[in-house]
Amino acid sequence: MISIRNISKSFNGHKVLDGVSVDIEDGEVVALIGPSGTGKSTFLRSINLLEHPDTGELEIDGKTYDLAHASKDETLEIRRSTAMVFQQFNLLRNRTALQNVMEGLTVVKHVPKAQARERALRELRNVGLEEWSDHYPQHLSGGQQQRVAIARALSMDPRLLLLDEPTSALDPERVNEVQRTIAVAAAAGNTMLLVSHEMGFVRSIASRVIFLEDGRIVEQGSPEEIFGNPHTDRLRDFLSSFERYGVDHSDSGILTNTAWQAQEARRKEHEREDFALEAV
Amino acid sequence: MPDLFNGKLVFTQIPQLLRYLPVTLELTLAAGIIGLVLGFIIALIRVKRTPVLYQISTVYISVLRGTPIIVQLYISYFGIPIFLKYLNYWNGTDWDINNVPPVLFAILALAFNQSAFMAEVIRAAITAVDSGQLEAARSLGMSPAQVRRRVILPQAGVIALPGLMNSLIGLIKGTSLAFVCAVVDMTAAGQIMAGSSYRYFEMYCSLAIIYWVITLVLERAGAWLEHRLSVPEQAPALRQVTEAVPEQAERTPSLPERGTVRRLPALNRQGITALAGTVGKEAIARD
């Protein structure tokens, strides 16, 4: 269980985050949605201290860190137990795909080179890019770069994977491959906190959706609650803005509404099965 | 036709001049290395904006870039002996300025001059490294020292290289002024030789050729280094994945083991598998 508590952050007197707290169970995929400039990215970046919040606490496996006053060692510790996937991929441009994935293993975790290499190749295989391991980022498409970035993040065995608009910088035809890769990582049980503007994707992958506006949590719940039955006007307004531009948030390319409903039914069935199994 | 220009002499006297090439190279190498190290330190001060040192570095760079190198050489040549005498006076020591080889004055002046130019090149290169690269490294948990060593230095180095080469080429030519510090370098030797033969024009032509060839060699070396350090333009061939794919490959893409899934609270399993299912082979077989 990972607990993020009371993160606040002001830029030049403007309050971007106002005491946001999120608890994440192991294996959960929590998605943050909300209008641009509401502090979603700042929230993510405050967790691994790429941004320094004014207040905030992070609890990982019973150990609590004061994010506002983290020491250098604590900062490194936090960053080593979280991993981040950036909007702009940020692969080291003077390293090949394989070297990029190995970098954290050898430099930060001091894994012997041969072992790190093996692990990195496996991670690249998992994202479908083993053949591309000798390519430099500039030789890869945006989607491929992002998949390498995901492999790099996962190679560190993070307790929490932070994804900051992972598909926003991609060409539309590359979005799907990255979303699938993230879904695979989710299926493998990685705990994730995701910021995304792709409502269809959020709806299919998230176990919980948090709607953030003006630095506060306005509403949160399961994807079906948030998208199917929004309680607040602000969330309704936000979701309708996707429809206004001809994109149905419930149907943006990944799952159709009917498919969604069918899936829901199947899901409930599975849950019953699981329940039955547990009872045995 | 009168013997106004002896074209042959331009080339035949080159070997004589080359006897003084080591002096020129020594000046270049020493001033270049000291200038690089000093320039690097100054660049760091400027990037970090270290108080006091930052202000000093601003003045330092401004003065050294804003005064002619020949003036700096003279200041070094006349100033250091005066400084030494004051030191002797204050400390009661008895250092003899005549024991200091004149080449040292030239090296110091050229090195300080270089450091000012190189500092600006290096500072610009460091700030040109994309902040996303640093964030990526930091987010992996690298310490600031590791980020500097593994990300900033190599990337800034590639960016700085052409500017540093430029500066070095300027330095080589700057060494030709070392005669004002009583150093007999190639140019000074040429002047002395021409003084007895009055073949000044031929002498300067010979010198021009030598300096140009040295610069040419440096340019080529710089281009080679730049090429070596930068990312190859051509994409490599795809790696042959010969390794037999483990047994999971045979399985259709599926959910992780049931037990694993059940541990995941409220996981949007169907949504995830609908997406993940198409990705292929053992994608899910992550451990």
TrEMBL record, chain A:
Where does the protein end up?
A: Cell membrane
Q: Which UniProt keywords apply?
A: ATP-binding, Cell membrane, Membrane, Nucleotide-binding, Transport
Q: Which GO molecular function terms does the record list?
A: ABC-type amino acid transporter activity; ATP binding; ATP hydrolysis activity
This protein's superkingdom?
A: Bacteria
UniProt keyword RNA-binding, yes or no: no
Q: Which Pfam families match?
A: ABC_tran
Q: Entry's Gene3D superfamilies?
A: P-loop containing nucleotide triphosphate hydrolases (3.40.50.300)
Check the record and name the InterPro entries matching this protein: AAA+_ATPase (IPR003593), ABC_ATPase_HisP-typ (IPR030679), ABC_transporter-like_ATP-bd (IPR003439), ABC_transporter-like_CS (IPR017871), MetN_ABC_transporter-like (IPR050086), P-loop_NTPase (IPR027417)
Domain ABC transporter stretches: 2-239
Quick check: keyword Metal-binding in the entry? no
A GO CC annotation given for this chain:
plasma membrane
* Membrane topology label: Peripheral membrane protein
Q: What is this protein called?
A: Amino acid ABC superfamily ATP binding cassette transporter
- Its source organism is Bifidobacterium apri
From TrEMBL, chain B:
The molecular function terms of the Gene Ontology recorded here are: transmembrane transporter activity
Q: Which InterPro entries match?
A: AA_ABC_transptr_permease_3TM, ArtM/GltK/GlnP/TcyL/YhdX-like, MetI-like, MetI-like_sf
Instruction: Provide one Gene Ontology cellular component.
Output: ATP-binding cassette (ABC) transporter complex
- SUPFAM superfamilies to which the protein is assigned, alphabetical: MetI-like
Q: Where in the cell is it found?
A: Cell membrane
The highest taxon in the source lineage is: Bacteria
The record lists the membrane-crossing segments as 27-47, 59-83, 103-122, 200-218
Under CDD domains, the record lists: TM_PBP2
Q: How does it sit in the membrane?
A: Multi-pass membrane protein
The alphabetized UniProt keywords are: Amino-acid transport, Cell membrane, Membrane, Transmembrane, Transmembrane helix, Transport
Set out the biological process GO terms recorded for this chain's protein.
Answer: amino acid transport
Chief location of this protein within or outside the cell: membrane
Occurrences of domain ABC transmembrane type-1 (ranges) = 21-222
Matches recorded under Gene3D superfamilies: MetI-like (1.10.3720.10)
PROSITE patterns tied to this protein: ABC_TM1
Q: Which family does it belong to?
A: Belongs to the binding-protein-dependent transport system permease family.
Q: What is this protein called?
A: Amino acid ABC transporter permease
Q: Which organism is it from?
A: Bifidobacterium apri
